[in-house]
Write a structure and sequence with these properties.
There is one protein chain. By secondary structure, the chain is mostly helical. It folds into two domains: 1-33, no CATH class; 34-360, no CATH class. It is built from 15 helices and two strands. A two-stranded antiparallel ribbon has the order 1-2. Helix 8 runs antiparallel to helix 9 (211-226). The longest helix is centred in the first third of the chain and has 26 residues, at 36-61. The protein is globular and about 55 Å long.
Length: 370
C-alpha cells in the first residue's frame, strides 16, 4: 500500500495533519508545512547572494576609477565642489578617514560600504514584509506566492543604480527602510528611544541627501493625520515625523549657511529641471525611462484603486513617502537619472509584493482604502 500524506489544516504559520472527514476542513486541502527557520535561511541566502554580487560588480567597475574617486573625496573634504554635491559630506569624510587609518583605497572601501548598506536595507525590507499581518495570517501556499513576489520586487530597482551611479543611493535606501520600520512597523522600540533613533538616522541621512529626511518626515506627519497608525499613536507618529523634518532641515541650513556658504550650483545647471524633463526635443527624451522605472509602483496603485485591495497602515506610509518625493524628483532632478528615486522603489518592495499577491489570490476589499 502506498503511503499517503495526511491532509493538513493551517494554524498560524504552520500546517497540522487533520483526520479524514474533519468538518472544519471539508475540502481536505493538502498543505505543505511552513517552517519559518527555512524561510529565513532561504531569504538570508538570497540577500547574501545579491549583496555579494553587487559588491563584486561595483568593485570591478571602480577598479579604474581610483583617480576620479580620490578627486571627488578630496574636493568635498576641502570644500571646493559645486552644490549640491558639496553638501553630501558623510561618505567622503568616512572614506578619507578609512584611507588614512587603514590605507584601504577609496575604490576598495566604497563598494564595500555600498554593499553593506544594500544588505542591511534588504534585511529590513524583509522584516517589514515578514511582520505584516497579511503575511502572517496567509496560508502557506499564499505566503510562498507573496514571498516570491517580494524577492522579485527587490530586484526591480537594482539595474537603475548603475547609470549615473551615486554612492549615497544604497545608504539612502537603508535610511528609508529603517525609518518606516521604526515608525510604523511592529517594533518594540519605546517612544523615547525611537525619537533618538529618528534624530540620529535623519542627521546622518541629511549629510548624504538632506531632502530625503525632510520629505519622509512630512510623509510620516501626514500618515498620522489621515490614517490609523499602528502600533504607535497619532501623536507619537507626528512627533517622530517632525523630528525627521527638523533634523534634516537644520543640517541642510548649517551646511549651506555655515559650513559651505561659498558653494554654488554650476552656472550651466538649472536649479529646476521640470521644463527639461517635459521637453520632447531634448535628446534623449526622458519620459519612456521615467514611466518604465515607475511601472511596478504605478501598477500597484492602480490595482489598489480599481480592485479596492485593502492595505495596511505601513503600506499607506510607504505610498505617501514615495508619492511625496515623486514631484520633488520630477521638478528638481532629471527623470532620466532614476537612481535618484531608486531608494523609494526599494522601500516599496514589500508593499508591491503584498498588493500583487492580494490581486493574484483574489483578496479584495469591500471599500476603498486610500
Amino acid at each position: 500500500m502506498l503511503c499517503q500524506t495526511p491532509p493538513t489544516a493551517k494554524v498560524g504559520w504552520y500546517a497540522k495533519p487533520v483526520e479524514q472527514g474533519d468538518p472544519d476542513n471539508p475540502e481536505l486541502r493538502m498543505e505543505v508545512p511552513l517552517r519559518p527557520s527555512r524561510e529565513i535561511l532561504v531569504v538570508a541566502i538570497f540577500v547574501l547572494f545579491t549583496s555579494l554580487s553587487f559588491f563584486l560588480i561595483q568593485y570591478d567597475r571602480m577598479r579604474t576609477q581610483g583617480p576620479a574617486l580620490d578627486a571627488w573625496v578630496g574636493g568635498v573634504v576641502h570644500g571646493i565642489v559645486p552644490a549640491p554635491i558639496q553638501y553630501r559630506i558623510a561618505l567622503p569624510f568616512l572614506l578619507r578617514s578609512i584611507q588614512m587609518h587603514t590605507h584601504i583605497s577609496v575604490r576598495q572601501s566604497l563598494p564595500f560600504i555600498e554593499s553593506v548598506a544594500y544588505l542591511l536595507a534588504l534585511s529590513l525590507m524583509y522584516a517589514i514584509f515578514r511582520s505584516s499581518p497579511r503575511v502572517e495570517e496567509a496560508r502557506p501556499a499564499q505566503r510562498f506566492v507573496m514571498l516570491g513576489l517580494f524577492l522579485a520586487a527587490t530586484q526591480f530597482p537594482i539595474l537603475w543604480i548603475f547609470p549615473w551611479d551615486r554612492p549615497e543611493t544604497q545608504p539612502t535606501a537603508l535610511y528609508l527602510t529603517a525609518l518606516v520600520l521604526l515608525v510604523a512597523g511592529r517594533s518594540k522600540t519605546g517612544f523615547g528611544p525611537a525619537c533618538l533613533w529618528a534624530v540620529a538616522l535623519s542627521l546622518t541621512q541629511a549629510l548624504l541627501r538632506a531632502d530625503v529626511p525632510i520629505i519622509a518626515g512630512v510623509a510620516v506627519v501626514l500618515a498620522a493625520a489621515i490614517s490609523t497608525p499602528s502600533p504607535r499613536t497619532r501623536l507619537q507618529m507626528a512627533a517622530l515625523g517632525l523630528l525627521c523634518v527638523l533634523a534634516g532641515g537644520a543640517t541642510q541650513l548649517y551646511l549651506q549657511r555655515v559650513a559651505y556658504p561659498a558653494a554654488a550650483y554650476p552656472a550651466d545647471t538649472p536649479r529646476f529641471q521640470l521644463l527639461t524633463n517635459l521637453n520632447p526635443i531634448h535628446p534623449p527624451f526622458h519620459i519612456p525611462i521615467f514611466l518604465t522605472a515607475l511601472l511596478p509602483l504605478a501598477f500597484s496603485v492602480i490595482l489598489i484603486r480599481v480592485h479596492r485591495l485593502p492595505i495596511e497602515p505601513v503600506d499607506k506610509l510607504v505610498l505617501l513617502v514615495c508619492g511625496l518625493y515623486l514631484p520633488v524628483w520630477v521638478v528638481t532632478g532629471l527623470v532620466v537619472e532614476v537612481r535618484i528615486y531608486v531608494p523609494f522603489l526599494f522601500l516599496a518592495s514589500p508593499t508591491i509584493a503584498k498588493v500583487w499577491g492580494a490581486y493574484l489570490l483574489g483578496d479584495g476589499g469591500g471599500s476603498r482604502v486610500l
